[in-house]
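Morning - flavin mononucleotide inputs below, output right after.
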Amino acid sequence: MGKPLHFNAFVMNTTSHIQHGQWRRPDAGQTEFNDVNTWINLAKILEKAKFDAMFFADVSGLYGDTEADYDVYAHEGLQIPSNDPTVLLGALAVHTTQIGLATTSNIVQNHPFNFARQVSTLDHISNGRIAWNVVTGINENASRNYGLPALTDHTERYAWADEYIDVTYKLWEGSWDEGALLKDKKNGRYADPSKINKIYHQSKRYRVEGPHLPSPSKQRTPVLFQAGSSASGRDFAARNAEATFIIAPTPDVAKELIAETRRLAVSHGRRAEDIKFFQGLSFVIGDTEEEAREKSKHYDEFISVDGYLAHMAILDRTGRVYPKETKLKDLDTNTSKGMAEWAGKHITDREPTLEDVATLQSHSTRLEGTPEQIADQLETWQAAGVDGINVINWVIPGSFQEFADKVLPVLRARGLAQSEYSEGTLRQKLFGDGDLLNERHPAARYRGAFTQGPSNWEEADALRAKAPATV
Ligand SMILES: Cc1cc2nc3c(=O)[nH]c(=O)nc-3n(C[C@H](O)[C@H](O)[C@H](O)COP(=O)(O)O)c2cc1C
């Protein structure tokens, strides 16, 4: 028997997330994303099927050139309109009891003091089932929505992320000592002030006094996801992430990426197994191979070439998508070079066009076949070091229901999917090693760090000048 893979449902609080054009299918429920019942219904299906978590992607602004129009995004429902997933998790938490709830939140979109408070509140509501996908963003428009003149430089974005996450660690792990909450009705002592600490954080962008307003939730720090794949992104993940989301084109590429990030984690004093890797995949499931092939063609009929190209930001200078028959060799942009090479590997009998790029993109994460064949392919991904799958959907809720009905039973028979939830918080369910971050994680150093800490800003600043690494 194999080792169970983890399964997350990869979704976004919008109509067109990844598989652009599929919202036009008659059975697509994602058009009703404003209706909270769409999500509650899906959460119940997923929980019944024992999915580990519901993972919400998010962006804080439009894709593409900020000066150009955004007609194509509006036509395609491509991540606009979209709603805030973090708010939605509050509703899902009270309609479920076991499934993990992961939200994406960009460091530009919220002050860390406020964000830390929202997450602690959600972790209380859900009884310890919250995860945070830490992103630094790639959209210029998102930066402009928060008063910045432009997208912050790549290296600086990760320095900012370090600073941001440090504030949240201090609030979650260090501000409240264990046993601070007394609830002592007899003596009229609700909490013990000697165990509630200010943090006096000072860094380039943030000056935060504390204390954290919520008392500690079950997990304190939510389970930490990360999705950057550049050198700085991988280094950030190696230091901070408990789970990393990848979209590798093949198991071999995934294997390399995973080994590299695990090596980095070890170099930062963590263990290789402290990070779990989730590969994003979509599924076309048939009772026979022939049926799967037919279904795949049917999905292709709904592909919106404009949608894929807009998501990949392959647009002209006015923000319009090029005609789909445009040959890649005729595109005069930097992005087209890598793409042309990539498309050229797959299409050898003619000049690749933009339509080919969109189709290739939609096929790049697609596993197709009978449930048995899909299970075989998942075993190959697992052998490459993948711990879990972020299941990308075509339609909500149908794609997940189909996966639950057809593929999960085959996986269970091979020991590759869980049949029951284990007890406890999301972290305990994923790692089996307690509700809190382990001792090797950098946030653990803040436990008890503020108990004997400074009692005002002057003392804090003096201490920082003497030993910058400690506070
Ligand atoms: C699989 C995957 C999923 C991502 N999901 C999101 C997301 O939901 N929201 C977001 O703002 N960025 C998302 N990103 C972008 C990354 O968080 C990151 O900002 C981007 O990849 C640039 O960082 P990098 O240069 O380190 O890769 C995702 C990236 C990958 C690879």
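Note: Residues 6-286+370-460 form a domain with the TIM Barrel fold (CATH 3.20.20.30).

O.
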